[in-house]
Each structure stands twice: as structure tokens, then as C-alpha cells.
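Side project, low priority. Logging it here so it doesn't get lost.
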Amino acid sequence: MAEVSPAGVSGARDVVATVLGFARTLRHAGVTASPDRVEAMIEALGSLDVLDPTDVYWAGRLTLCGSPDDLERYDAAFAAYFAGEAPRPGRSRTTEPPRLSESAPLDAGSGEGDDDGAAPDLAARASADEVLRHRDVAGLTVAEREHLRRLFRLLVPATPMRPARRRRPSPRGVVHPARTVRRALRDGGEVTRLMHRRRQPRPRRVVLLVDVSGSMSPYADALLRFAHAAVRARPAATEVFTIGTRLTRVTREMRLRDPDKALAASGSAIPDWSGGTRLGEVLKAFLDRWGQRGTARGAVVVVCSDGWERGGTELLAEQMARLRRLAHAVVWVNPHKGRAGYEPLTGGMRAALPSIDHFVSGHSMAAFEELTGVIQRA
């Protein structure tokens, strides 16, 4: 019986890890890449050249996509995850294989010096992409930030749901007497079918308060891109405000389809970008004008800030307690929490912590993906 070399075992593990990471990216893009489909792709790659982008592309397209609606999302996810251009369906196998972008970040190997012109190692490139997901966004290069923006385009935050008060027609649930009788009258007076109804869950409002002060400037772009992804997923159930020295509502700007245009419009609407921080006063303004009137009632409120407060912490503690009474859940996102040895020692964080339900980090792409789960479970 032939023995498997350690290099072969390592290569197989790299392929499996790459496919699993790609499947996770597809799920965040809205493609249901189920475990059996992922297994089918791994089996298909066992008979193909894993270094050929065309083979990898078609192996995933034919196994991971379940409907025509998935094809466009799959192409975008493939281009973002492998940092290259997805092959077009109409291309022939005799044409030149698609080239991955030479200027793409996280280039695991330039391929210079290869006489046979072999395709780039997709497993190594995807492995580097996995490393990028856990990198602090404040320390990324310009090229890495551009790559991260493509990943943000694929992020589809899940929406928290709430039970509705009214019952609606449903194939299952309690019997609806009135509809059952009306159906019997149409059928000649005999009950031939029982009509049912039940409470259908409805989207719960999500409110994001993004700190754009000077201390949060390294993370403001990523946080606003996350907010844009949330608005894109549920435009009618998501509100976005920026906080600093004043409160600014940017929900209308965030509803622009293109994220770059949305951020540019938001930047023009925000008068206190990279300014100071008055969390207590701004939070009071939000609750007086918006929250108390219904925006925060029963909503999941996400505060994205490092907790630096130039004003008095007593006002912040009072307004956070007020917010906690109105909201369904309060989530605080602090990018510094992702650093080793972090402790909430600032006065603002100490004042806010008693009124926070979930305290999470927001320093990397993986942290933002985790945040979507926290919002959904809240």
C-alpha cells in the first residue's frame, strides 16, 4: 500500500481549509453553501487542478450554487476571495486561463521565475485572505484596505426578528374559525379543509450610532461600511447616526447602493468628522429627538465608540440607563477590545458598562462577522 507523503497531506489540508473559507464568504454573501455542497466541491477538486483558477471557479459554481440567483453573488465572492477576476461562462477552455490581479493585496507568490507560467497558488492566496480577516483595520495598507472593501460588499448582516401581535394566514398554526367557515360555505356547507393562522415574525429595528471623533478615525471607514451593509440588507428597518460633538442622521445617505458614494455623501453631511467626543450630550440629543419618540423603542441599538468622553461621565451613565429602558438590547462595539490585555478603564466605558447587554470588538472583518451574529441573536 502506497504511503501518503507529508507534503501531500499538507496540500490536501490547504485545499479543504481554502474551500471552507470560501464557503463561509459565500454564506455572508447570501449563497446557501450547505455542508453537502461544500463536500461535493472538495470531491470535484480531487479530480481537477487546484492551481488552475478556471477549474476552481467551475468546480465551485457547479456545486455550491443552488439557483440562478446565486450566480452573480458567486462571481462577486470568487473575485473578492481569490483577489482576481471570475471566469466568464462563455469562455472556452482553449483560451488563456483567467489571470488573477497582479496588483491584488496579499500576494502569496508573484510567480516570477516560473518557466512554465503556472497559475498562482489559490490556496496560499486564500490563506492570506483568511489572515486579513483577523487583521486590525487600523494597521492595513492601502491595498489591503481596498481588498477589505470588496469583502464588505459581500457582507449581508442578518436581521433580528420579533414576534408580531397579529396572526396571519399560514399552512400551520391554530385553526382560523372564520376563514374555515367561509371556505366551507364555498364548498357547499361541508368542512373540507381547515384554515390556519399564526404569528409571523417581523424584522426588529436596528439603530447604529457610529463615533466619528478623532480617536475613532482609524476605524470610522470600516464601521460606516458595516452600517451601509446593514442598511442595504434592511433599508426600512435600519437607522444610522454619527456621534461626536453633535448628532447627525445619515440613514438617507447610507441608502445609496454604491458604498463608496454612500460614504462620500455621509462625509459631506457630517460636520464634526474627526472632532471631539461628547457622548453624554449627543446620546441625550438622540433620545430626546429620536429615541423617546419610537426609534429606539424595542430596537437593537449598536453604539460604536471607544468610550472617550470629554464631558462628565454622570450624564453618560444617566443616558445609557435611559437607553437601556427603551431598547430591546444595547450592543457596544469598541475596536480596542480586540487588543490583547484590553481593559475598559476609560471613564466613558465605566459609566456605560452597567447598561450594556453585549460588549464586543469591532477591529477586524472577523469581528464584524461576529457582530452580525450578536445583533441577530439579540
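Brief comment: DSSP finds 14 helices and eleven strands in the chain.
Revisit when time allows.
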